[in-house]
Amino acid sequence: MTTAKAVKGDKVTPAAPLNAFAGKTDAPDDQELALALGAAKTLWDKLVGDLQRKHTVNPEWGSSSRKAGWSLRLTLKDRIILYVIPLRDSLQVALVLGDRAVKAARQSKLPGRVLKTIADAKRYAEGTGIRLAVTAPADLVAIEQLAQIKIDN
Fold first, then answer.
1. For 3, which DSSP code?
2. The pTM is what?
3. Which among 47, 127, 117, 121 has a CA at the least distance from the CA of 85?
């Protein structure tokens, strides 16, 4: 996983991992996605498939810029539930939780690392934005819980 470091004042903070499709002008096809994700493609397919079956979310590729790369938005009606971000040999999920969803998440039985991520996240006008690494099937359970919390709140 390739990362860069950003320097802020006297602090050196790790930058976000690079999107597997940074610099690409067109959305990736399934073959390109499989090559980029490697073994993590199984986790990608399970996450997206489970959320489509349980919540009838619509997947849509999007990119805010060539530099940022591509992510798969999972939407329910006109609401973005979460973003699935392809990295080299791994993936991340990003979502923005409103105040009610943050409160519900804090009261849930989410894993401690997820609750810490929420607690440490910066609050913006749109809500509290978090990113979670997906490295094992157990991570999918927490992400699906978060998606349900967001849908319900």
1. -
2. 0.86
3. 47
pLDDT tens for each residue of 6-59: 444 545 455 566 899 999 999 999 999 999 999 999 999 999 999 999 999 999
Cβ contacts of 59-62, under 8 Å, gap ≥ 24: 61/27, 61/28
Enter the tokens of residue 18.
Answer: 């690079």
Amino acid at 91: L
Q: How far apart are CA 80 and CA 78, in angstroms?
A: 7
Alpha-carbon span 80 to 83, nearest angstrom: 8
Residue 1 pLDDT exceeds 60: no
| Sequence-distant (≥ 6) Cβ neighbours of residue 105 within 8 angstroms | 97, 114, 115, 118, 146, 149
**Separation between Cα atoms, residue 66 and residue 110, nearest integer Å:** 34
Q: Check: CB of residue 129 under 8 Å from CB of residue 118.
A: no
Average pLDDT over the chain reads 90
DSSP 56-118: --EEEEE-S-TTT--EEEEEETTEEEEEEEEETTEEEEEEEE-HHHHHHHHTS---HHHHHHH
